[in-house]
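INTERNAL AUDIT FORM
Audit reference: QA-55
Scope: verify that the stored structure record matches its stored sequence.
Auditor: D.O.
Record contents follow.
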Amino acid sequence: MKSNKTKSAMTALVIAAMLCSAAMPMRAAESQWVNNNGTWSYVKEDGSIAKGWIKDNNCWYAFDDNGAMRTGWIASNEHWYFMGESGVMQADAWVEDNGTRYYIKGTGVMAKDYVKDGYELTEDGKAIPLAESKSVVLTDPEAIEGEVIEGNLYVDVTTAKALELKGVTVKGKLVVIGDNQTAGKLTITDSKIEAISTQTRNTEVVLSGETEVKTIVLEETAAVTPDKNFKGEVEKIEVQSTTKGEIVIEVPAQEVSTRTYASVDIQAPVESLEVKTDTQIKVNADVKNVVVTESAKDTKVEVSKGSTVGTITANAPVKIEGNGTINKVEANVDGVEAGKDTVIKDVEIGKDVEQAPEVNKPSTGGSSTGGSGGGTTTPTKTEAEKFKEKFEAELKGSFTTAAAEKSVTVTISGDKITGNMKDLSVNVWGFVKDTILTSISNVTTAYENIEKVEIIDNANSNMTTGDMAIADLKGNESGSIDASKLAEWGKGLFGEDTSLIELKLEDVADKSYTIKFTLKGSTTAVTYEVNLKVDDTLINAAKTSLQTNIVTAISSLNLNNLGSASVSDQTISFEFNSGTTTIAQISGTGLFSALGTLNTSGVQCYTFNDTAEGTTIKGTQSELETLIGILKNYLGGGDINVGNANVTDLISALDNKDMIVTVKYKDSSNKAVVNVDYTFKFSCKSESETTTNPEETPTENVNVNENVELIID
């Protein structure tokens, strides 16, 4: 999508400096710009070469790891920024790159899912005329009720300070926009929203009644609050604000992730909190798991009195404060500190870690010295706590090592285990035996009260190993598990007709399983969720491979000089030379069945989505439905002879309608499977264009590169 511009010349940099400040001040010798054969770098006052972001005379610049000033598009904290030819970060400006317009917001972040000057900035930042999109901009203060919005719904609080949505369905995103100054309020009642994105400050979004929201993205310091009638829960909240301030989380959520410069105040129960950048976190409600990632160095977590955090996993230095309770701190690096008033029941220290907080349990009262009365007591651990302590140590040790040997990278967060698979040809049952079953067997030597174990497919609870007795898992004297038991468990989990020898990791890609432990002396089972994901490098390679095959198939069409076909990103366009050409004339050219030729290239299934009619037609490798079946919906349907219709009728019928084909593709090399949406567009040449020789009509070929972005289901 984006390409880097050429490094700026000396003149451009001097002009930029003049624009950023009225006059360039004299600098000390050790703080200056240096031009080395056309490459600019910046020497700081301490004599070191600047790397990363630097602000100089009210302008922001970015430098690579070698200290070279960057221009063009750069990514930082999952945001895109554009640095001009002078190196200055652009802000509140339009940028044109490779024929596509983008808008850069005042913060310097590339706008996505945004409206500006009559254009909509799409999910990948590209500007399209708002009139051509399915999105709606709402400025009227009157409430809207019972509407279904196919695209995005933009609510502008600048002109309508108080709005209400009742019984509204938004299939795209509900985006709150404004001028960052007007204090607005949006109330959402009994509505179904796929995602909410707040892109203006000083605005409150109130959730009420039976409202359902999957994702909330807080891109500015706005608030999303529930009223007393709200009965739901949000699946995921992403805090992405690039400005300072405070963001309050008042809605219960399963997952919260933060990459922000603002402080975050958690005031509602949260299952999982992931901190991706250094910030200040206030915990004023119960949070099950907090993970501080490597990129969140020097984060501060304050747990208030009466609030409890289940586990804090510190993969970067973090300061823990407050009067609350933390059941467990996992210190995987040095520099994890805790205040004297914070209750910490357990501490687990990672390998090579020398500095970590100490256990700080609350006193039960009485004197701490002398006599038989009083003194502190250590709470007795439950069977579940004893088991989890031993099992999680095994997971982070032998289990992770064994998985890595099978090309699976494991991350563990509380009771969730995620496996990132880099080689899908690995035998799946061999992977299960060498990792989870072996680890279960190993942990029985440290914890003897495991009664039985069961592995369950989360998509189908009938697919299960059944109860696996510990004696069977430990195997014989040599440690080998009985082959008949392995076959029995494998068939139950993966299917009666499945050959366990042939089953590969590709067959369980994106699957989720639950491991259930039944313990002696405990009435509650201990469960862990295992999610298997395909590595992004394999996914991206599969996308590129599919795009290459699509381009080749479309470029190979012989349209009998009736028109031309081209591919641009995920849009397949057909331009006819004459509006009087009939469907019958082009139906034998392969125009409507070009994708069918890809069945031998890894395409497994097609889904033709008629968005206007709301119908879906699926085609498989053995039987592919052509687009003719869908065209009948627009050209009259029933027994109409579609072949007699000309392309002008077709284009008119499809005006402002998307013909979307979802292609399910399996890469023959790495076995990754992707689902990609392609949009069909039809047009006809103008009278002046049709005077050219049809034989000279080119077929466009698109170069595929790593920046091609696909729409994935």
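Auditor finding: record pair retrieved intact. The chain is about 15% helix and 35% strand.
Action required: none
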